[in-house]
Amino acid sequence: MQNIFPSHGNEMKARAPSLEAASSDSWVRIKETLRQMLSADDFARWIDPLKSKAVSESEIVITFPDMAAYQKVLGSFMDQLDFCKATLGLPFLFRFEIEGAETTDSETLEHLDFDSLADIAPPPPVFVGSDADYAEEYKEGSNTVARALTLQSQLNLEYTFETFVNGPSNQFAHASCLAVADAPGQTYNPLFLYGGTGLGKTHLLHAVGNKVLKSKHNAVITYITSERFMNEMIYCLRFNKMWDFRRKYRNCDVLLVDDIQFISGKERTQEEFFHTFNALYEAKKQIVVTSDIFPQDIPDIEDRLRNRFQWGLIADIQAPDIEHRVAILMNKAEKQGVILHPDVASYIATHAKGNIRVLEGALRRVIAFAALQGRPINTQLAAEILQDILVDKNESSLSIEAIQKIVAEHFKLKVSDLKSKKRQRALSVPRQIAMFLCRVRTQSSFPEIGTYFGGKDHTTVMHAVKKIEKDRKKDLELRSQLEAIERKLDQIS
């Protein structure tokens, strides 16, 4: 018999008869509950043949007759199993075995079609902290495969609330993260942070974990990027380690997921994250995710997952204003032991129009050149060094036609729709956004913009610009749309 999730240490010691009896009774109760939830055919075919046995006071092994039953139950009925366990108040964890099965090879997994599973090689084993127990069983060429899952939090200790430069553009997100860190799982669950690249989402994510650990030393904090979540899941699927995977992600106190937008189009990954989300949410554990995109705008993602992202609180991070950018530069310079004159910081902040990473990169470049050339850090030096990389967006070669094309593509419309006289909201809002961006991103006048939109009167353009400018301050979805389009415009300008 193949044990899919082998035990370690003293877990396989002899069980007392009373333990076996308790296991059998618990499984009978679960099966009776499942009988009421499932159709008669599904229960008879997939659930009734399953057997149980106790491993310890906290674990029950469920035995499957074959691999087909294992795949079907884990793929279709795990929610029901978890629901029954929670409803009946059973303190057990499930482990699984398959009768008479050998080690699953890549050909078997290839037919499961789990996000092109067979084409992705497993990552090298990682033995950190409590994972060191698995190191001894990993031998080159052997059939035993280490689980390659680290249970450490992976937090960056330098990313804390104390080192985060708070300002008007991120004040709401900062306050939301502080509230979550002070009372994880009690307020704003889940917390969804979104904003452009390089605005501090990852910093706040780590800050939440570090603050929770500071107040609760035994808290289990798990930080993960969505890409690593997918890769670990694929590894565990290939080598029958899904129990380890689920134990890691469904038994933490705080789950921090970075760049959730990258699970777009990954159906199997979305399904696993959906179940992980449900398990943690029901257990009142804190979930914090970040994204470059507003939840409603993440493409190719299941509606049930999209809706869950909006259950709690959505906090956006905007690009910092000039004063905030100067404060960030002064703070970064101070950490590097460099005295930065406010005039130099103001010059860099004014001309470095990208995100905070661009700002920091410009500062590092100035400091490095000053040190190498033995020159003082002043505005003249900054101008010389950064003249090739600091480009003012007002000097952009963007045209009205280019903006119209980008806006039309974003909303899946034709440019002719933006120029038409139709007033349906599906057309009027994109048209107003395009007019607003033409005014902001080009030197064109209101009448000139109007001619490019089917000969619209200049007052129509003025109204559109004022409306978008006003609505973007309170409409998160509109703001997200604008930021997404502006990122595309930045790429061609």
Could you write a compact summary of the structure shown?
The chain is an alpha/beta fold.
What features would you describe in this structure?
The protein has helices at residues 17-37, 40-47, 67-76, 78-87, 106-110, 171-182, 201-215, 226-238, 242-250, 267-282, 303-309, 322-335, 342-351, 356-373, 379-386, 400-410, 415-419, 425-441, 446-452, 458-471, 476-492; strands at residues 2-3, 51-56, 59-64, 93-98, 191-195, 221-225, 254-258, 286-291, 313-317. With 493 residues, it is an alpha/beta fold. Residues 1-17, 101-150 and 391-395 have low confidence and may be disordered. It has 21 helices and 9 strands. It has 4 domains: 2-102, 2-Layer Sandwich (GMP Synthetase, Chain A, domain 3), CATH 3.30.300; 171-317, P-loop containing nucleotide triphosphate hydrolases (Rossmann fold), CATH 3.40.50; 322-391, Helicase, Ruva Protein, domain 3 (Orthogonal Bundle), CATH 1.10.8.60; 395-492, Chromosomal Replication Initiator Protein Dnaa, Chain: A (Orthogonal Bundle), CATH 1.10.1750. It is globular, with a radius of gyration of 28 Å. Helix 10 (267-282) links the parallel strand 7 and strand 8 (286-291). Helix 6 (171-182) packs parallel to helix 7 (201-215). The strands form 2 sheets. Strands 6-7-8-5-9 form a 5-stranded parallel β-sheet, with helices on both faces. The longest helix is centred in the N-terminal third of the chain and has 21 residues, at 17-37. The protein is 50% helix and 9% strand.
Note the main attributes of this structure:
Helicase, Ruva Protein, domain 3, alpha/beta, 4 domains, 50% helix, GMP Synthetase, Chain A, domain 3, 493 residues, 5-stranded parallel beta sheet, Rossmann fold, 4-stranded mixed beta sheet
